[in-house]
Amino acid sequence: MAEFTFHHGGVSVPSLDEAIDWYGRVLGFEVEKRFYIAAAKSHTAMLRKGPLRFEIFEVEGAAALPEDRRSPPADLRTHGNKHVAFRVEDLELFLAEMEAKQVDIAFVVRESFGKGCFIRDCAGNLIEFVEEPDA
């Protein structure tokens, strides 16, 4: 089988500039490059934080994110891509930082199988963060 590695996740937003600001201020991503995808009518930016990349699309005439896509339990009832997830060392420390930045925390899980949370970006897109104990 051919080898491959993860390259990036992507989200569509109503305002590229607002999303670039949010992902930079809240999560520490920086703009790697900006470009226009004519076939999609999308003003686009590739953001980067170390080895992580996130592609942000502002598509002309795009529909707003439906309400059921803003809640993790409701979103799972619709087929398709759900979210990206990032690992954090300490969920409680991460949550405190997000609260201090007044981030919209959508859902927190503290179960025997693991701990994690979902936050919403400035457009309502879900992003998961998990605390995974070292094996």
From TrEMBL:
Gene3D superfamilies assigned: 2,3-Dihydroxybiphenyl 1,2-Dioxygenase, domain 1 (3.10.180.10)
Keywords from the UniProt entry: Metal-binding
UniProt keyword Transmembrane, yes or no: no
Superkingdom of source: Bacteria
Gene Ontology biological-process annotations: L-methylmalonyl-CoA metabolic process
Keyword Metal-binding: yes
Domain VOC, chain residue ranges per copy: 5-132
GO terms, molecular function: metal ion binding; methylmalonyl-CoA epimerase activity
Protein name as it appears in the record: VOC family protein
Organism of this sequence: Novosphingobium umbonatum
